[in-house]
Amino acid sequence: PATGATATIGLSVERPLNDATPHSLQVDTTAAGARLVNAGHWGMRFVQGDGYRLSFFARAERAMTVTALLQSANGRTLAQRPVTIPAGNWQKHEVRLAAEGSEASGRLALRFDTPGRVWLDMVSLFPEKTFKNRPNGARPDLAQVIADMKPGFIRGPGGCFAEGITVESRPQWKRSLGPIEQRPGTYSPWGYWSTDGFGYHEFLQFAEDVGADALWVVNVGVSCSFRSGTFLDDAEVPALIEDTLDAIEYAIGPVSSTWGAMRAKHGHPAPFPLKYIEIGNEQQGARYGQRVAQFYKAIKARYPQMPVVLSSWIAGLDRRAIDAVGPIDIIDEHAYKPVNWAIENFDSFASYKREGWDLYIGEFATNAGVGRGNWIAAINDAAYMMSVEKNTDLVKMASYAPLLENVNHRDWEVNMIHFDSSRVFARATYFVQKLFAENLPSVSLPATVAYAPVGDKAIDGPVGLGTWNTAAEFQDVRVERDGKVVHQSNFAGAPAPWSPVTGRGQGSRGTWQVTEGAYRQSANEVAFSYLTGSSAANTTISLKARKISGAEGFLVMGGEVDGRRVQWNVAGWGNTQSAIQASDAIVGRAVRHRIETGRWYDLRLEVRGRTVRGYVDNVLINEATYPRIDTVLAIAGRDDRTGEVIVKAINTGPDAAAMTFDFGAAAIAATGTLTTITSANPTDENSFEEPRKIVPVTTTMTGLGATFTRTLPPYSLTILRLGRR
């Protein structure tokens, strides 16, 4: 300790409280008045007049007095209560503290009024007010935001969290039951400890409290594929299956059963709304599918009504797992897409083969090219959900992810609900998703859209070269337009017109230099260099390229379109395929293609309007036309509860779109409702300061009939609810 210190602290393994918590905090004080302070996760919120329950375990060498205090960030006392700790073994102490003032970033302090040695463990400060007043319950404002969405189901305990960094570190539901001091906690793949205070029971209770079904993800004996991807031995699978059956019994079994009785002991005799069991998360391969088949057989034998979910790979279905599993109820695909993918690939599910199982989109978000999630991300999410709703013969469920973000520690870019210790706001995509839940039809109806966007909006912008985790060099860059050479780089000297850049979505500047008549990027990095003042509009870009080292091939940038890079990725994805891209999203079709290290290749990229063709050694490898993203998309359905027709329409472009709605012979009532959510700038977003900058507005429409006209604002989602005469 520093000179003059009156206390020292340290971790102790001596005489722990129990096996679940093998460490305690040893505190040695030499004089009265030392304080042990904890600010929680970036501050604790205290509300004047509210009560807070403090509990902790302590043992002391001799009797001591400790005063528990609620403090403001600057140390002002908001509440205090003395606690007497007798000498001897571990004892639990509980006090109620009533806040005499409010504080957004407060802290808990224990003041040692008697010097001596004391050990502390499982110190817990909990507000009396929780959602539905549940023990170990949720924060009311956060929970209410979720409840207001009226979710049909809630998935837990998470995706990668359910897998663990290793199989041994996976969450185990039985260890999350009972007194919190007997819950050892789980180390999250995202790099922090979860106390499991919000355990399996609390998850099921929360789903019931918000009126949602519960979907529980169990570990299949495989850790996260992006961490270690390790498998437990096959001999251990039967125990995992039995553990899964126990979890189902805890949720829905009769009180006469072993685990149903445990549920009743914990205060909930009635069954919980557990509706689905998912086996694993983001796994792939035949071995995984074969394991899921074992779980499926055992679950169906005991709970034939329980739908079982196979979690397929990211951004596509893993056929090896699907072919190996045999019978299955639901397949879960995860779909994180870059900006405008959902618009360019609208109604993508129409091409999926119907194979006797339902599809669940367990995690989706527009998560690239949209900052921390802006209004254009929400429009893309709406387009994706419209594709889901249009194909409900196949896609039965979808859930956005991730749901929550403490703004002080972000592990993902585009979380839906942001909060700190005292505030919460929902992104625009939250209100979009809420509108879809509130306007869910019983039956889909056919809808066609005729819309011609204004102008041609051809590809323009600078010519560029690049690498992706690869070192490469380039020679003889030539740009031609209308049969004339408008630029030529022979790299005989300094590359004056070429400029390495950052900030174009990825990576470093790289290490660019002219060497031996070539423009070389010598680091295995993501790197870009652009031809200053160039325009790729209606040009042919020719060059030679050679890979030096690294994982992939070359990048040739042919300008920009709709605010994104026009990028030809030659031998990307681990040197397996080539594709035309809009920034990082594939446009058109990827083609299997490899290149050799050390070999020079002739590359040619032809840019014509919005069409791009890429040639390697005079052989056409890729061709793609960039779809217009300034368009109108629409779907329709009927709500059998009200008899209303529901139309959802998106204007994805910067210009207002006057649209005629034609219902043919349908007898449409003269009045209806119109709900619109829009913002003038696609980069707008809600915030703590403006939490309702982008929210829906509902008005009444009059003068309706089988045909009428409405103007869709730029960058908008519009929902019409129309009665029938």
Give the low-pLDDT segments: none
Shape call: globular
Measured by DSSP, the beta-strand proportion falls in 35-45%
Q: What portion of residues is helical?
A: 10-25%
Please count the beta strands (DSSP E, at least 2 residues each).
43
SS summary, helix count:
11
**CA-CA gap between termini:** 82 Å
Q: How does the major sheet shape up?
A: 13 strands, antiparallel
Query: Which structural class do the helices and strands define?
Result: mainly beta
Radius of gyration: 30 Å
Mean pLDDT: 94
Short description:
The chain is mostly beta strands.
Describe the structure.
- The longest helix has 17 residues, at 286-302.
- By secondary structure, this protein is mainly beta.
- The strands form eight sheets. Strands 24, 25, 26, 27, 28, 29, 30, 31, 32, 33, 34, 35 and 36 form a 13-stranded antiparallel beta sheet that branches. The protein has a seven-stranded parallel beta sheet with strand order 11-14-15-16-17-18-19.
- The chain has eleven helices and 43 strands.
- Helix 4 (237-252) crosses helix 5 and helix 9 packs parallel to helix 10.
- The chain is globular, with a radius of gyration of 30 Å.
Key terms:
mainly beta; 13-stranded antiparallel beta sheet; seven-stranded parallel beta sheet; 43 strands; globular
Task: Indicate the topology.
Layout: E1 7-12, E2 24-29, E3 34-38, E4 44-46, E5 51-60, E6 64-71, E7 77-85, E8 91-98, E9 103-112, E10 116-127, H1 140-148, E11 153-156, H2 160-163, E12 186-187, E13 193-194, H3 200-209, E14 213-218, H4 237-252, H5 258-265, E15 274-279, H6 286-302, E16 308-314, H7 319-325, E17 330-338, H8 341-344, E18 358-368, H9 375-390, E19 395-400, E20 404-406, E21 417-419, E22 424-426, H10 428-438, E23 443-445, E24 460-481, E25 484-489, E26 498-501, E27 512-515, E28 518-531, E29 540-550, E30 554-561, E31 564-571, H11 572-575, E32 577-582, E33 585-592, E34 600-608, E35 611-616, E36 619-625, E37 632-639, E38 644-651, E39 657-662, E40 668-678, E41 697-701, E42 707-712, E43 716-724
Parallel strand pairs: 11-14, 14-15, 15-16, 16-17, 17-18, 18-19, 20-21
Antiparallel strand pairs: 1-2, 2-10, 3-9, 4-9, 5-8, 5-10, 6-7, 6-9, 12-13, 21-22, 23-37, 24-25, 24-28, 24-29, 24-30, 26-28, 27-28, 29-34, 30-31, 31-32, 32-33, 34-35, 35-36, 37-38, 38-43, 39-42, 40-41, 40-43
